[in-house]
Specification:
Elements (H helix, E strand, L loop, with lengths): L12 E7 L2 E6 L10 H9 L4 E15 L4 E12 L4 H14 L6 E11 L5 E6 L7 E3 L4 E5 L3 E6 L3 H5 L6 E6 L3 E6 L7 E12 L4 E5 L3 E6 L4 H7 L3 E13 L4
């Protein structure tokens, strides 16, 4: 039997999100400070800069996490490399190289607890099944997911979308039924959610951090001709077309 004390019953810790076996906690203040770091820690807490952690409760199921993200595990929990053979290893290594995610993500299975490393990034939980065609992520957003979720590579619709749009050629796409934990440069409350129904959105810059897999992504001129683009002061914009959702951050 395992009992965890001084976590959710700690006055300095609050639960900011919880779905099924995933709990995200936030430290109200950073108490691990010295006289040299106290001033920075004080103003950081006032400006909503807090340390976050993910606690996963496993109940005879499994989770896949980013490499190196595990802090501790307790109970009958076994870790394994999510690799089926030599060919699968090289395939995952290639995927990691093109998506800037960890090549081989460890899988934790059993019954017990899995605590991930603390981070000052913002964390939130997404239901992958709510994203049409899968959930495409910007580089570095993946932290953890239920292992039944499929992880694939989503390529750009054309070469210009990557080169002209100042984006990578490939992105990690999650599909299927299950929950994923994402890291974000801004809080979930600041992310604008755009719901497209057979329509399009044009974004000047790489503000989109996640989008539905069945959306078409291209880079186009902001207007139909170069003169119009010059007058508007905008050149090339990222265009998403179709039916699906997009999460947009206020900062690139």
């Amino acid at each position: 039997m395992i009992k965890i004390n001084n976590l959710t019953n700690n006055d300095n810790i609050r639960v900011i999100d919880k779905k099924e076996g995933i709990m995200i906690i936030e430290y109200i203040k950073d108490l691990s400070v010295t006289e040299d770091t106290a001033i920075n820690a004080y103003y950081a807490s006032k400006m909503n800069i807090h340390k976050h952690q993910v606690l996963i409760t496993l109940n005879n199921d499994s989770y896949t996490i980013s490499q190196g993200a595990m802090q501790w595990m307790a109970g009958n929990v076994k870790a394994s490399a999510d690799v089926k053979g030599v060919g699968d290893f090289f395939g995952k290594t290639l995927k990691g190289a093109v998506t800037k995610e960890s090549a081989v993500k460890p899988r934790y299975q059993g019954t017990g607890y899995l605590m991930l490393e603390p981070t000052f990034k913002y964390l939130f939980i997404e239901d992958v099944s709510n994203w049409q065609g899968g959930l495409v992520l910007d580089d570095g957003l993946f932290l953890a997911c239920q292992s039944q979720i499929n992880q694939k590579i989503k390529s750009r619709s054309n070469l210009s979308s990557a080169v002209l749009g100042n984006e990578g050629f490939f992105n990690l796409m999650l599909s299927g039924n299950g929950l994923a934990v994402l890291e974000s440069p801004v809080p979930r409350e600041e992310l604008i959610e755009i719901d497209l129904q057979d329509d399009e959105i044009r974004i000047d810059g790489n503000y989109a951090i996640a989008w539905s897999g069945n959306l078409e992504f291209k880079v186009e001129k902001s207007t139909k001709n170069l003169v119009g683009s010059a007058v508007s002061g905008e050149g090339l914009v990222n265009v998403y077309r179709g039916t699906g959702k997009i999460l947009i951050a206020p900062l690139a």
